[in-house]
Task: structure prediction
Amino acid sequence: MAETGPLSTFDAKQIRVLAFDVFGTVVDWRTSIAREVDALGLGVDAERFADAWRAGYQPAMQRVRSGALGWTKIDALHRMILDDVLQRFGIAARLDEAARADLNRAWHRLDAWPDAAGAIARLKRRYTVVTLSNGNIGLLTAMAKRAGLAWDAVLSAEVFRHYKPDPQAYLGVCEVFDIEPGAMLMCAAHPDDLRAAAACGCRTAYIDRPLEFGPAGRSRHAPAAGAFDLDTTDMNDLAAQLGC
Amino acid sequence: MAETGPLSTFDAKQIRVLAFDVFGTVVDWRTSIAREVDALGLGVDAERFADAWRAGYQPAMQRVRSGALGWTKIDALHRMILDDVLQRFGIAARLDEAARADLNRAWHRLDAWPDAAGAIARLKRRYTVVTLSNGNIGLLTAMAKRAGLAWDAVLSAEVFRHYKPDPQAYLGVCEVFDIEPGAMLMCAAHPDDLRAAAACGCRTAYIDRPLEFGPAGRSRHAPAAGAFDLDTTDMNDLAAQLGC
Result:
């Protein structure tokens, strides 16, 4: 998809709903997953294991998108990928069914970035603040409860039966709140997510998360300056730029 | 449907998710709607108007259930009923499009019963506490924000594309949270809602709201003693009976 610039001058007063990507943008999946893998004492590189697990995510969603797999919750996709990654790391025999089910729920226990909970509370005073994640509702709800993320509503690909970046996900949020796409601000650390939202007519806020993929992963993310309506260093900076 | 008694001894420790009916159970729709109608100075009996508006609700959902109408959000059903009620009260010419749209959103501005917000905060410490309402997500989210109802997640017939008391609504909540029906407690002021949940294997808590239909409406509601797992006088009593 081509880099899509802002459609017109950004005006925070036209925004009514803030929709947040979650994995990477609001929570630090890599450190959280690595910590749980490490605690199992399996003798593997826990960061590499976390990266491998996460790397299976886009191909798994693509199988749903292509129709090779029917609609499947991320919990179930995470489990398929986990079984495969355990095999590839040569430790499949080390984890029984109960241990795998518990490790799979590590995605329900991800820690938020330090600014996230406070910034959501600030943003809520002026906007309706919701998730728009490919994570399933149960996962997002458990995570929010544990991490103190007081979303106004938990929306998910599961509601729309379409994963991001399918347009149905972004437009689904607009339909839920009966707003024009220009009244929704998609907030994410991932340029492809934001470009897909912009293509639907939504406004976009880039949230920089330089450590999402660890110290070596930085270069993957930085978007061209001015590519999105707002370019922020974290969620508190987003709140400040929105005047909250 | 026959009065369905508890399936087995109720044990609060087996419950993981509390799903709340909203209109009547958590919020006082009649007083709130009547107040907004009254403020318009239309010279009608505002309580009678509120009752007529609400009375159109079940027949409207039945049109969706029967297939006569495609899937329709409650916001749109409320608007169809409003147009009809204005006609029947002989005041259709008094409200233009903008005034009707605003009055229709009165359902987003319903006041909670005085115990609701505090009880939800108590219950959340031990359980996942969500809505299961026929109201649409946008309506429920706006209402929760205004009334300070800090749900863990906003679930709605809109997510499942089935209105209560269709079993798909109750079982949909169980699927979202990956729980057996016996781990869900349906909480409502309406015996028919609870009976439908019990028929799906869910546990049930009756919440008494003697004033839902005003001082004259009392007799419509009281269920037979012991008909449900818990029989409570309000949401704080529910929290107390659950040991929260």
In short: Chain B touches chain A through 22 residues (CB under 8 Å). The CA atoms of residues 121 and 244 of chain B lie 10 Å apart. Residues 12-28+110-241 of chain B form a domain with the Rossmann fold fold (CATH 3.40.50.1000).
